Amino acid sequence: MLKNSMSVEFMAISDNERFARSVAAAFVIGLDPTMEEISEIKTAVSEAVTNAIIHGYNDTGRGRIVMEGTIYEDSVEFRISDEGVGISDIRRAREPLYTGKPEDERSGMGFTIMETFMDSVEVESEKNKGTSIIMTKTVKQVGK
Fold first, then answer.
1. Within the chain, where are the H helices?
2. What is the CATH number assigned to the segment(s) 4-138?
């Protein structure tokens, strides 16, 4: 059952990674999550936004990122979308330690981190049209 939803759009610049983390944390408070769950959600959202900035828009500062959140009875879903270059090989991009930017000394752990902290991670991408990362997490409500 849908309880709440939100959408925010921001420039694809690294300063907005912190903004996205803060928005995600504030949005899930209504589910009464644990501090650990808040930290995990913030980290997963941060990785998705960072990937959009670094890989989707090649860290140019041009472009927009849309972050949508939906709260259900005991879970939250976040969709992070860009209109960047897209991912040519999603399976490969999700492999631990794989990075499309080895020259930038990237760790290649973004998807692994998202998958570790969230219950599910889906990727939709089309070359030169962008990427959406859809992440869900069930929250073990402390007060219930």
1. 15-28, 35-51, 90-93, 110-117
2. 3.30.565.10
